[in-house]
Amino acid sequence: MAKPPSVMDGKDRLPPGQYLTTQFPVLSYGPAPKFNPAKWDLRLMGMVEEPLRLTWEQLRELPRATQVTDFHCVTTWSRYDNRWEGVMVRDLMRRVKLKPDAGYVFILCDGGYTTNLTLAEFLDDDVMLAWGHDGHDLHPDHGFPLRLVVPKLYGWKSAKWVRAIEFAINDRRGFWEVRGYHNHGDPWTEERYSFQEDPED
After folding, report:
1. 126 in Cβ contact with 151 (< 8 Å)
2. How far is it, in rounded angstroms, from Cα 119 to Cα 130?
3. Residue 103 domain-assigned (yes or no)
4. Are strands 41-46 and 52-55 parallel, antiparallel or unpaired?
5. pTM beyond 0.85, yes or no
6. CB atoms closer than 10 angstroms to residue 99
7. Range of the structural domain that residue 52 is part of
8. Burial track 148-182 (b if 16+ CB lie within 10 A, e otherwise)
9. Which helix (DSSP H) or strand (DSSP E) does residue 65 occupy?
10. Residue pair 146/87 in contact by the 8 Å Cβ criterion
């Protein structure tokens, strides 16, 4: 996976083909779902020794973290210095044991949205599940109550309204990936569309 330049000032933080904005545009498949904390849960399932279900209250009791990262949308805008609050994936994963054949992750969301990642990408040190943004609860249009944040990939991989995380042996494409978007989505190499993929992959 390509890494951002080490010099993080001005245009060196901006991937090719992107422009900088201070706004946070709303781009979603479908409307924001209604949130009922008494009924909401998060499930970890698939290639795990024991499936895990967390209520909203249990999720919020996990170790809290904040981090500041840039966000790059495939539609060519980028927003610097987003302050996210939530739980790091590495802390969540202490609650489950993966089976040895697990190699991919499929994210399932309210509203029918899905996306896919390799297990290594999902377990990266900067990946988190966020409920807060820039000092406030995430706006529902931006994914409240829970959004995946994958800073190294284009924003469609940072799925909104996450409800389940499925660990799998084999990869399968998510909502936008089956509709012509790149299966990986690295902004530093402009992996925007599926026609750019190596046919050998």
Report:
1. yes
2. 19
3. yes
4. antiparallel
5. yes
6. 11
7. 37-66+84-195
8. bbbbbbbbbbbbbbbbbbbbbeeeeebbbbeeebb
9. strand 65-72
10. no
CA–CA gap between residue 44 and residue 166 (Å, rounded): 6
7 found inside a domain: no
The one-letter amino acid code at 183 reads N
Structure tokens given for 166: 């499925």
Q: How far is CA 146 from CA 84, 100, 162, in A?
A: 11, 28, 6
User: CB-based burial of residue 106 (10 Å sphere; 0-12 exposed, 13-18 middle, 19+ buried)?
Assistant: buried
Assess if residue 115 is contained within a domain. Answer: yes
Q: In this predicted model, what pLDDT tens digit does every residue of 62-108 receive, in sequence order?
A: 999 999 999 999 999 999 999 999 999 999 999 999 999 999 999 99
Q: How far is CA 19 from CA 23, 77, 109, in A?
A: 12, 5, 28
DSSP 88-144: EHHHHGGG--B-TT--EEEEEEGGG-EEEEEHHHHTSTT-EEEEEETTEEPPGGGTT
Q: Write the CATH number for 164.
A: 3.90.420.10
User: Helix or strand or coil: residue 36?
Assistant: coil
Helix (H, G, I), strand (E, B) or coil at 12: helix
Find the mean pLDDT for residues 1-25.
Answer: 73
| Domain count for the chain | 1
Question: Is 159 a domain residue?
Answer: yes
Distance from C-alpha of 25 to C-alpha of 55, rounded to nearest angstrom: 30
What is the CB neighbour count within 10 angstroms for residue 189? 14
